[in-house]
Amino acid sequence: MKLLEDEQKQKMAMELLEQYLQFKQEAEKDGDNKKNKKEKDPLKPKRPESAYFLFMNERRAALIAENKSVVEIAKITGEEWKNMTEKQKARYAKVANEKNEKYTQEMEIYKQNKETEAEIAKKEEDEVLKVLKQEALQLLKKKEKTETIIKKTKEKRNKTKNNKNDDPNKPKRPASSFLLFSKETRKDLSKEKPDISNAQLTALISVKWKELGEEEKQRWNSEAAKAMEIFKKEMEEYNKKNVVETPKNDDNQR
Question: How far, in Å, are 107, 190, 202, 235 from residue 132 at the CA level?
Answer without folding.
Answer: 37, 19, 10, 37
